[in-house]
Amino acid sequence: MTFPMIALLQAGYYTQESAGISYSAATMGMFVLIIAIGVIGFIVQARLQSVFKKYSKVQFPGGLTGAEVAEKMLRDNNIHNVKVTHVGGHLTDHFNPQTMTINLSDSVYSSTSVAAAAVAAHECGHAVQHAQGYAPLVLRSQLVPVVQFASSAATWVIILGLVILASTQNELLCWIGVGMIAMSAVFSLVTLPVEYNASARAVEWLQTSRTMQGAQLAQAKEALSWAARTYLVAALSAIASVLYYVFLILGRRD
Length: 254
Prior knowledge:
Strand content: 5-15%
Protein name: Zinc metallopeptidase
Strand order of the largest sheet: 3-5-4
Number of helices: 8
Keywords: Membrane, Transmembrane, Transmembrane helix
Transmembrane segments: 21-44, 146-165, 172-192, 231-250
Organism: Alistipes timonensis JC136
Pfam families: Zn_peptidase_2
Order of helices and strands: HEEHHEEEHHHHH
Oligomer: single chain
């Protein structure tokens, strides 16, 4: 996934000028890359919605609802302090370690479809991670308050930093802002193993517990793989955003 960025740099995004290196082309390149990733993200999200809708119509043998699948997976993993609850919305499913709840959306909680079972098992995968002290999940939880503050303040810090840079050539505040944006990128990167591992745990349990087999298991894998790709696109977008601001600040030196 990093190859396109390397290719862009090799294609001449670092241009030599008499005063030194110009980063204006690199800044524009990163801006275009962010837009491209945004388009890819839209396509991936649309595909996820399509796959979920398709497999929401496919029932699997056993007739378990999403809530029952979640409760069964929790019991099989000897987790008895997590409650399965219902929340409104579509694909708003999540595990909340603070309230120790698996929160399943309207389209999952009472549905007996392949898609509902896959999502429910995935969220239980997070509960299993929490019970076992899975390191990336622990780190992500620790980063949440830091990222919430940094993401809300970063843009304003960079804008103020650029104003100061224009008059004083002092870059410190700009780099503090970039550091704040970088925290979101770190969070996105840490999220990747958390989500992929939860899906792997879900698929393994669905198979070993014989909750799903054959075609239905393959369909569940497909649904979860498209969900995981949304997090991959988010991570790439966060990295591109950091690079954009880095080149923007460096370009002010010209």
